[in-house]
TrEMBL record:
Protein name listed in UniProt: PTS cellobiose transporter subunit IIA
Residue stretches making up the PTS EIIB type-1 domain: 8-90
TM segment ranges: 111-140, 152-172, 179-195, 215-235, 247-269, 275-297, 304-323, 329-349, 388-405, 426-448
UniProt membrane topology term: Multi-pass membrane protein
Residue ranges constituting the PTS EIIC type-1 domain according to the UniProt record: 127-455
Predominant place of localization: membrane
Domain of life (superkingdom): Bacteria
Key words, A-Z: Cell membrane, Kinase, Membrane, Phosphotransferase system, Sugar transport, Transferase, Transmembrane, Transmembrane helix, Transport
Active site: 30 (phosphocysteine intermediate)
CDD domains: PTS_IIB_glc
Entry-linked SUPFAM superfamilies: Glucose permease domain IIB (SSF55604)
Cell membrane among keywords: yes
InterPro entries, per database record: Glu_permease_IIB, PTrfase_EIIB_Cys, PTS_EIIC, PTS_EIIC_1, PTS_IIB_1, PTS_Sugar-Specific_Components
Length: 455
């Protein structure tokens, strides 16, 4: 069956379950959902809608029925409109419901995860696909199965890294929609973080009007750009509110970008790095006193480390350990924590009922098993709180094990079993830690579960 036929079949099924075209008073859509206003709510077959293949979830938002389709919502929407003879108004923002209830919502972990989900979910397919290619390339080059001098490697390597290197650009699209602000200016901020004149200064201090700014490498980060666009959404509206209408088109964007440049590079950008400096050195100190406790803490917080970009600090500490001690004791924890992310994907895959979720989770498992954990973190852990808890427990326990039994890594490299020879005489310890990370986290992930309707 062709894709078009599948969309038409799903559209026909949706029309039937919502009571037919005569029960629809209005239909629109956003980035992932069909949004129906209907005459008679009692004839809507919610359970049958939720169990229909191709539908991720279904919920009522006030008087509006929302059917979550995902990335193919445009095609299904067009098919429904064609079959029912409905007009097609413009798509609306995904965050419309959040705006309606913004005064009632409180700051919470759920709110943070929901915001991250809205910003990052559209990027997950790109990260999952690129992650698998990237992992396979690392596997091939590690075992000298492909030369890095070939044109094939150069192209495949660029494909595998593009989605990660330019992640701030990709996330900026979802963040602009979530915070209801200018998409173009959001992309400009992403460009600021990744501009060559900034990336070339990574690791150095830049003096601006007497103030020292720590320049950090922002490729593959999400925390700085999301926070920056959130701040910009308020600043841009404020400037636009008092700017004369005749000057808005030029001066509102110019002033916004000018002010945000200093806020981004001077405050928001280095925030994760500065926090990471103290966290990283603190954990390194704990390792020296109580290795198991240090491994436990690092394994638990590693998802947050990746989210905030603090891994740059740990990379520096790891390199210094290898140079001064001849080995590193932090890398083993990162390695088993990466495997814990794969275990979470496996447990979520086994627990999921919807085909779309199973497909997404198994692709995240493949890339996570190789050592590319971003699809797992952003696609599962930061979308479902219980999955994040499972990951933290699995990472913490396995991290404590390899730290307690003095796991060591004698060379730098990615945190993956692919680099197992680099662990030398502590390979048996690492094998135990990897097994615990995978199995324990998979079991916890399956037991804790997640709400497939709330996506």
């Amino acid at each position: 069956m062709s894709k078009k036929a599948k969309y038409e079949e799903l559209a026909s099924k949706v029309l039937e379950l919502v009571g037919g075209k005569d029960n629809i008073t209005f239909l629109t859509h956003c980035i992932t959902r069909l949004r129906f206003n209907v005459k008679d709510k009692s004839i809507i077959k919610i359970k049958e809608i939720e169990s229909t293949s191709g539908i991720i979830g279904c919920q009522w938002a006030g008087e509006q029925l929302q059917i979550i389709i995902g990335a193919t919502v445009n095609e299904v929407y067009d098919a429904i409109c064609a079959q029912a003879g409905l007009e097609k108004p413009n798509a609306i923002d995904e965050n419309l419901d959040g705006n309606r209830n913004s005064g009632k919502r409180k700051f919470s972990i759920n709110a943070i995860l929901e915001t991250l989900s809205a910003c990052i979910v559209p990027v997950i397919p790109a990260m999952a696909g690129a992650g698998i290619i990237r992992g396979v390339l690392i596997l091939l080059t590690t075992h000298d199965l492909i030369s890095t001098d070939t044109g094939v490697f150069v192209i495949l390597n660029a494909i595998s890294e593009a989605a990660f290197y330019f992640l701030p650009f990709l996330v900026a699209v979802g963040a602009a929609k979530k915070f209801n602000t200018s998409l173009i200016l959001s992309l400009v901020l992403a460009g600021l973080y990744l501009h060559p004149s900034i990336t070339e200064l990574a690791g150095e201090t830049l003096n601006v009007a007497g103030f020292d700014i720590n320049i950090v490498r922002y490729s593959s980060t999400v925390f700085p750009i999301i926070i920056s666009i959130w701040v910009m959404s308020y600043l841009y509206r404020f400037i636009d509110s008092w700017m004369p209408k005749s000057l808005r088109i030029v001066f509102s964007p110019a002033i916004t970008v000018l002010v945000m440049a200093f806020i981004c590079l001077g405050i928001i950008g280095p925030l994760g790095f500065n926090i990471g400096y103290y966290v990283g050195n603190g954990i390194a100190y704990i390792f020296g006193l109580f290795p198991a406790l240090g491994g436990l803490l690092l394994g638990v917080i590693r998802p947050i480390v990746i989210l905030t970009g603090m891994q740059a600090v740990f990379t520096t500490i790891i390199a210094n350990n290898v140079a001064t001690l001849g080995y590193d004791f932090i890398s083993p924890v990162h390695t088993v924590a990466s495997m814990a992310a794969a275990g979470m994907c496996l447990g979520a895959f086994l627990r999921a009922k919807k085909l779309e979720n199973k497909e997404n989770f198994i692709s995240s498992f493949v890339s996570g098993f190789i050592g590319i954990t971003e699809p797992a973190l952003f696609g599962i852990a930061f979308r479902f709180r219980r999955q994040l808890i499972a990951l933290m427990i699995g990472g913490g326990v396995s991290g404590a094990i390899v730290a307690a039994f003095e796991g060591k890594r004698y060379a730098a490299g990615m945190p993956s079993w692919i680099m197992l020879p680099a662990f030398g005489d502590t390979i048996p310890v690492m094998l135990i830690g990897l097994a615990v990370a995978l199995i324990l986290t998979a079991i916890l992930s399956y037991i804790f579960g997640f709400d497939e309707k709330n996506q």
